[in-house]
Amino acid sequence: MGAGRPSKYDPAFCERVIELGTGGAGKCEMSAELGIHYTTFEAWQSEHEEFSEAVKQALRFSQAWWEKQGRIATFGGVEGYNATSYIFQMKNRFREDWRDKVEQEHSGGVTVQIMRLAE
Questions:
Q1: What is the C-alpha separation between 36 and 40, in angstroms, rounded?
Q2: pTM, two decimal places
Q3: pLDDT tens digits along 28-84
């Protein structure tokens, strides 16, 4: 056994991160709720396959939670809804799915920029 303290890792943390993800939590909030430093949280994903899979699932649930909140708010379900703030959150939290994609098309000596939401 190496030097240092024994790990506080507990396989039950997998269930907890999934639970937190279903409420919209991100990784920083998950690590805080587990009472561990963020670097430990990141290291555990490399060291424990089941924890890595749980975090991935939790992040999918988190994105689904955020998307549902936006859908509800868009149709009047949230008082004081700020669409600009929501879009900012989504683009920064879920860059892979929510980033703007800029494409350039060249036609007849003219360059046209087209912005699309990433698919």
A1: 6
A2: 0.78
A3: 999 999 999 999 999 999 999 999 999 999 999 999 999 999 999 999 998 999 999
Q: Are 51 and 9 in contact (CB under 8 A)?
A: yes
Return phi, psi of residue 106, to 5°: -110, 125
Enclosing H/E stretch for 13: helix 12-21
Lowest-pLDDT choice from 1-15, 26-40, 105-119:
105-119
Three-state SS sequence of 39-61: HHHHHHHHHCHHHHHHHHHHHHH
Q: Is the CB of residue 111 less than 8 Å from the CB of residue 105?
A: yes
**Distance, C-alpha 68 to centroid of its chain:** 14
Look up residue 14 and give its two tokens.
């997998």
Which pairs with CB-CB distance under 8 Å and at least 24 residues apart come from 109-117?
none
CA distance 17 to 28: 11
Enter the tokens of residue 11.
């396989």
Q: How far is CA 42 from CA 36, 56, 103, in A?
A: 10, 12, 34
